[in-house]
Design a protein that fits this description.
three-stranded antiparallel sheet, 96 residues, alpha+beta
């Protein structure tokens, strides 16, 4: 889950913040949100991030998946995630 250009996390062991250069605003993060963001940024595989969250907070998989999804949704709603690049059209796909 990559952040878009201009979004910069500042994470500590107990909390963190996220700077949005476009707006000049800081988003304060709770400890749980900071840990979740770190897991999402550090692990390309979502399953690894979920496992790390389960281990850190001692919660079942369903709770971990829900919590990670909520943080991702909040970042997406705030325009802080990198948008996927459109797939280039090749060959006969131009007519679609």
């Amino acid at each position: 889950m990559p952040l878009r250009s201009g979004a910069h996390p500042v994470l500590t062991g107990t909390a963190g913040a996220l700077l949005d250069e476009r707006s000049g605003r800081w988003l304060q993060l709770t400890e749980t949100a900071a840990v979740t963001l770190r897991l999402l940024l550090d692990h390309a595989e979502r399953g690894t991030a979920v496992h790390g969250y389960m281990h850190r907070f001692g919660v079942p998989r369903e709770v971990a998946e829900r919590d990670l999804s909520e943080v991702e949704r909040a970042l997406a709603d705030g325009g802080l995630l990198q948008r996927p690049r459109p797939r280039p059209r090749i060959g006969w796909e131009w007519w679609r």
